[in-house]
Every structure is written in C-alpha cells, then in structure tokens.
Amino acid sequence: xxxxxxxxALLIASMLLIVMACNKxxxxxxxLSPADNAKTVNTxxxxxxxxxxxxxxKPYEGTDYIVGNVDNxxxxxxxxxxxxxxxxxxxxxxxxxxxxxxxxxxxxxxxKLVEKKIVKNNEKIKNVEDLYNICDVNEDNVxxxxxAAEILRYYACKGAGLIKD
Length: 165
Prior knowledge:
Blueprint: H1 3-29, H2 34-41, H3 47-50, H4 80-95, H5 106-115, H6 128-135, H7 145-159
Helix pairs in contact: 1-4, 4-7
C-alpha cells in the first residue's frame, strides 16, 4: 500500500475514533430527553446546518437508492460502516497516482477500488452521477470528509432519537 494512503487511512481512522469517543461521552453525560435535544437541533438558527442531514437516509428522487447508504446494506440503514467506506474511498482519491494510473473521474477510481476489493461494491452505483447522488450528501459537488462527517452526524442524531423515519 502506498505510503500516502497509509498516512491518510491512519488520519481517517484517528478521526473516526475521536468521533466515536465523543459520541460515547455525549451519550453518557447528557440527561436531556430526545424532545429537548430536538429543540436545539431544529431551531431556525441551525436550519442551514441541518439542511443536508434531512436528505440522508431518504431515497434519491427518481431512483431506487438511498442517499448516504454507501455500503448498500439490504435494510438501507445509514451506519458507521457507510462513513468508513466513504472515508476509505476519499483516502484513495486523495492519494491516487493520476500520472501513472489514468482515470476519467471519481467513478473510474471507485471501479478500480471495487475490482481490487478495497471498497465494497454498491450495485446501485452504475455511473458517476449515481456515485455523487449517494456519496455527496451535502450536495457541494465534491465527495469529501465533510460528507462522511454528515453521515456520522446523521447516525448520531438517529441513535439519539432526534430523527424519525
């Protein structure tokens, strides 16, 4: 494995551990009911901040896939695995050797990583548009760590009872 990929993967793993530790600390120290928490999450001041989280876990309009379901599990659940898969993909995009391994777009990289069994194959991703509709959860036209963070945030809010189906 390329040294850049190892470093990026280590950084991402560290970020995930920090997020999970913070989530555990938050879960153990909060005494608020889900209704109290919902008031702080859904205020107008935070409306822009929670805008994209509302799209996660819902079917993308006109398709049969779910926004944020990166690993395409059968139940359509958005879990930590989705963020982990996305972070792995992002690490390889950032470390890709574009000079020696020509690709047209992120979908080509995704396909090569699936072939090498580095990332899990999502049968719903058939082109670059599908890739972005599923993975670019904050709709900024870039698949980035921010998207993985939004998936983790959604997972935490869902686990805390702040998001209803």
